[in-house]
Amino acid sequence: PQPPYKDGVPDMYYKPSEPVQIPERKANATFVMLVRNSDGPNIMNSMKQIEDRFNKKFQYPYVFLNDKPFTDNFKKYVSQLTDAPVEFGLIPSEHWSQPEWIDETKATAAREDMIKNSVIYGGSVPYRNMCRFNSGFFYKQELLQKYKYYWRVEPDVKFFCDVDYDPFLLMQDQQKVYGFTISLYEYEATIPTLWGAVKDFIKENPELLPADNAMPFISDDGGVTYNRCHFWSNFEIADMDFWRSEAYTKFFNFLDSRGGFYYERWGDAPVHSLGAALFAKRDQIHFFNDIGYRHEPFQHCPQGDLHKNGKCWCDPGSNFDYEWYSCLSRYDKLF
Ligand code: GDP
Ligand code: MN
Predict the structure, then answer these.
(1) Cβ proximity of 26 and 166 under 8 Å
(2) How far apart, in whole angstroms, are the C-alpha atoms of residue 252 and residue 275?
């Protein structure tokens, strides 16, 4: 038997896709994927879902970032998944390395201690480079300078529902700066001195905090202690100009100078979340309730009409929103 079509010529079995009508109004936005060459198949898994559930209709570009050059094979197969522009960037080594002023003896001791205590990624320097990069350097990459909004996508995540509207335009039109799907508690062992540093920063720069910020999301006692709540940063739809602002720039530089990315294991999730909670107005932080999403081992599965409207394929009974380890109820209470 003949294949359904040959040499690109449709025969009677071939049903061509409808030509896509790209919306006239779009935001200045891109997907951002930070990955290794070895993450190829895993990021394609995520990207295919992004394309099918959303981007086929919207055609937002992709920026891939890596601390090592991408291979030709990686670039070829990833680019084949989309009709949208795809760019590949090499991260400058000064954005992806332990600063020379870090006391290596102290950093090594901290890593060994964390290995002993089975802290996840506790012994890894590359993981620390990654957390510092995502906290303070990704939005400084050359390829991202032309963009304002980004959607961060990691390898092997799942998108359960059709996204039939433009979340970037939602961010823009409603002046949102940070969007999330899952929030939870950080491991204390990775951030013992982070909140002390944050308090020192606030004392020095009180004018950078708007009165209606999201402090109650991160502190249950008006800023005395950190409740360890943070937005899970493997999913982010956010405004890079917020990270580029004076407030966040000062904040990141201050934290970086404390060395906690290496003497401890500060994650980009708490650092971004603290930045968003302190320097944005609370109504600028958006919960993407309609975006069904999973990053192991947690998922947000839209409920009720949202589940139906998105034609979601997740089990509505499996939903992290109000599990004991979730911080979503603290977000709800802001409003
Ligand atoms: P987890 O989600 O905290 O378990 O960490 P991941 O292993 O998923 O890493 C977070 C993100 O950083 C993912 O997008 C990874 O692909 C990426 N990543 C982690 N380590 C490296 C690295 O050494 N090089 C590059 N280029 N990307 C990395
Ligand atoms: Mn991950």
Answers:
(1) yes
(2) 8
CA distances from 21 to 18, 56, 71, 84 (A): 9, 10, 32, 13
Give residue 18's pLDDT: 81
Q: Which of 130, 236, 265 to mutate to test the pocket of ligand 1 (most atoms within 8 A of CB)?
A: 130
Whether 228 and 186 have beta carbons less than 8 Å apart is answered as yes
Is the dihedral angle over the CA atoms 210, 148, 96, 125 positive or is it negative?
Answer: positive
Q: CA geometry: angle at 238 spanning 234 and 242, to 5°?
A: 125
CB-based contacts of 279, cutoff 8 Å, min separation 6: 208, 209, 210, 213, 242, 245, 247, 248, 251
Q: Which of 219, 335, 228 is nearest to 286 (CA)?
A: 335
Q: Name the nearest CA neighbour of 238 among 31, 13, 4.
A: 31
Q: Can you give the length of the chain in residues?
A: 335
Which stretches within 227-287 are classed as H helix? 240-243, 246-258, 260-263, 268-279
154 lines ligand 1 (CB under 6 A): yes
**Could you report the predicted ipTM of this complex, rounded to two decimals?**
0.99
Ligand 1 lined by 39 (C-beta under 6 Å): yes
Predicted TM-score (pTM) of the model is: 0.96
